[in-house]
Amino acid sequence: MAARTAADFVPDTTDLDALAAAVQSCKGCDLYLDATQAVFGGGSATAEMVLVGEQPGDQEDKAGEPFVGPAGRLLDKALVAAGIDRDRIYVTNAVKHFKFTLPERGKRRIHKTPSRTEVVACRPWLLHELMALRPDVVVLMGATASKALLGSAFRLTAHRGQELSLSDDEATAGLDFTPRVAVTVHPSSVLRGPPSERDKAFDALVSDLGFAAGLLPRR
Questions:
Q1: Would you give the DSSP letter of residue 164?
Q2: What is the DSSP letter of 175?
Q3: Is the pLDDT of residue 2 over 60?
Q4: 3-class SS at 27?
Q5: Most CB atoms within 10 A, among 85, 173, 186, 203?
């Protein structure tokens, strides 16, 4: 039996509003069972740059919007430092439902990294977002987002500051355009790092975002 994916739930459209409405009915993997709601991407419908993270976090799951929690606030700060207007970009995640565990005591939901199966199952949503937007540049933030579109063998740390291309295999089947691609860490990794290293990690994130902005065509 074929593995479940979101493909059966993604409408044949490149209308972002229609996609955002349809994602709430997705049962392409079991993550929908525990999440509050699906969290689709958000931002400019004419964005030249798309930033892709891993999955919504606790606050995103409750709000229904991407990058509104601590990592989102740090990303906002990094975008400003890199000279990028967030109102002119689009942000989304490789996985649309929040995956978490609960501690034996307490109610705080703890982030859990999506499995490869869950990332692959959810990928049709991301591909349709990209086809709707047709951005010039795609920035993959973190290992999960990078591997979602560049293959499971991709190593992010070896390719920061490089212009890349999306993998030419089933991962991006259906895309009929070729955006320029850059990779960087997920903003949450800056927050999780040792306090003594946080400024250095933040500056590196800003540098990566600045590099990505430099890939945009000059108008």
A1: B
A2: -
A3: no
A4: coil
A5: 186
User: What per-residue string of b and e applies to 45-58 under the rule 16 or more CB within 10 Å gives b?
Assistant: eebbbbbbbbbbbb
Confidence of residue 186 (pLDDT cuts 50, 70, 90): very high
Give the separation between CA 54 and CA 60, rounded to whole angstroms.
12
Provide the pairing of β-strand 100-101 with 42-43.
Answer: unpaired
Instruction: Please state whether beta strands 100-101 and 49-53 pair in parallel, antiparallel, or not at all (unpaired).
Output: unpaired
Residue 1: inside a domain, yes or no?
A: no
Specify the residue for token string 């850059």: 182
64: pLDDT confidence band, cut at 50, 70 and 90? Answer: very high
**Domain residues for 187?**
6-214
Q: The CATH number of the domain where 39 resides is what?
A: 3.40.470.10
Whether 27 maps to a domain, the answer reads yes
- Total domains present in the chain: 1
DSSP label at 197?
G
The helix/strand count (H/E) of the chain reads as 7, 7
Rounded to an integer, the average pLDDT of 156-181 is 85
Identify the pLDDT of residue 123: 95
Confidence of residue 1 (pLDDT cuts 50, 70, 90): very low
